[in-house]
What does this fold into?
Amino acid sequence: MSAPIVFSGIQPTGRKHLGNYIGAILQYVEGQDRGDPAIFCIVDLHAISVTYDPAELRERLYDTTAILLAAGLDPERCIFFRQSDVREHSELTWLLSAVTSHGDLNRMTQFKDKSAKQELVSAALFFYPVLMASDVLAYKATEVPVGDDQRQHVELMREIARRFNGRFGETLVVPKLVVPEVGARIMDLQEPEQKMSTTVGTEAGTVYVLDELAAIRKKLGSAVTDSGREVVRREDKPGVTNLIDVLAVARGADPAEIEREFDGVGYGDFKKAVAESVVEMLAPVQGHYAELRPDQAALEEALAVGAEKARAIAAPTLAEVRERMGVGAR
Ligand code: ATP
Ligand code: MG
It folds into this structure.
């Protein structure tokens, strides 16, 4: 069996949270040797789909770049770049919009959730899934490691690839969704019925990778549980279930082991244990981050090298797509 081509993107919101870390970043770090190539992209063009400040976007882009490197992404072992540096993504978005159904875009729950919070509901927010499809399809990726919230978008990009191939001939690869077994959907600590999120979450319920360690302890210590006493995963215990998953990932253990270990232990002590493990997991990342973040030139250099490698793959795909679609000179 040949190695998978792995592709995933992450928004440069800078304040990446525990959900991003567990659902996405840990998978990237693990996947960089499995993929041939493994491609990871900071998707600044996605970030402009909601209200933002241009100067801040640049700063947050460097923050995110440094977080990913600090977490263990190694530009020697993967292709790591900034989306807007590879213009093929944008052009492919337009071309693929011709085989994207408006009705499908209308059904996207992320669009509904995010647009509810925006003063201007941009067309970019509506088009987000087409750009995301282009990100992945430009590289003929076979695997897309993401969190569970991206299931619908990956299903749509599969449909776009199939429709393109059906209409214009076998060209694009239909990629497979890959979500982590545990931690694919980390929930907000204060509102455990909704996912931890950058755009729609609560501040007290969101642990950021770069939060002060004291703040991490405080947020996890005040996480909502329930009125019961048992440390078990159950549908009516979303808060406790979420914390069990977090602890399992932070320790590299099985959730069932965590349940056994904390059988009969009170919620207070359980939450302390979760907090300590998360602190242990994130403290080294923060240490590396502090070393890497100040050298913006080095971050730019890493991204530039990545963009060159990315373009070398995306450009031929785009040429093929144009040719198949009858666009441009032969
Ligand atoms: P936004 O809410 O603005 O979309 P986000 O928090 O989802 O921001 P992204 O950069 O869009 O951040 O997501 C990066 C990756 O993190 C994606 O693969 C996404 O599926 C994953 N992810 C996001 N939130 C969670 C979560 N709560 N649990 C697990 N994975 C998540
Ligand atoms: Mg998101």
User: Anything to note?
Assistant: The chain has a mean pLDDT of 97.
